[in-house]
Amino acid sequence: EAQVTQNPRYLITVTGKKLTVTCSQNMNHEYMSWYRQDPGLGLRQIYYSMNVEVTDKGDVPEGYKVSRKEKRNFPLILESPSPNQTSLYFCASSRLDGSNTGELFFGEGSRLTVL
Amino acid sequence: DAKTTQPTSMDCAEGRAANLPCNHSTISGNEYVYWYRQIHSQGPQYIIHGLKNNETNEMASLIITEDRKSSTLILPHATLRDTAVYYCIVRRPFWGGGSNYKLTFGKGTLLTVNP
To answer: What is the DSSP letter of B43?
Structure first.
């Protein structure tokens, strides 16, 4: 089954404790992206990647890092989490070639609470 | 990418057609209109997309005005399970290169289907 898998789905942590949210897709997609969703603010893009070793900032990259060492994986790293990073996070992927409908496939979300 | 304007919320009776409007007056010639929906706090789900012709699939119909400055997503027979936030996005396809890879969702329209 084609899917985007995020882990963990729920996490409560404390300020400053480094954490990684993993994202894996099994569709051989070139494009992957991270979003955060906060009440009243919609979905905002954090980082995106066009292929292995190619990443770029979205609209709200501060406080986050990403890496794309393998095509299927795109982890989101919070080196020193702060309470303002408490949010619902989504990973998404898509093909980049011309046969693509442009559809983004989303994971089920990771709800992060930073105390 | 062009910005979009959607109503904050709409109501619809179960079994009736739900017509969700989207204004995108600054759309350019190579930008597509995409619709996604998000049920509760699940990952957003692709619904449909179009360039200038009306489109229909098993989920919905998309009507784009002749000047392409607005569009309407139609759910022909809304059910309670269609209660969700619906996002209208306008963007160039990914294969176009450049800044096409940045993709931000707005706040969308909360559609509530009532029994």
So the answer is: P
Chain A residue with minimum CA distance to B8: A40
Strands A87-94 and A110-114: antiparallel
Residues of chain A with pLDDT under 50: none
| Min Cα–Cα distance to chain A from B36, Å | 9
A111 neighbourhood in chain B, CB within 8 Å: 41
- Across B39-54, b (16+ Cβ under 10 Å) vs e yields eeeebbbbbbbbeeee
**Euclidean distance between CA atoms B113 and B38, whole angstroms:** 14
Sequence-distant (6+) residues with CB within 8 A of A111 are A9, A10, A11, A87, A88, A89, B41
Taking only the tens place, the pLDDT of each residue in B8-50 is 999 999 999 999 999 999 998 888 899 999 998 899 999 999 9
Residues 53-112 of A with CB under 8 A from B: 56, 58-59, 88, 90, 92, 94-98, 100-109, 111
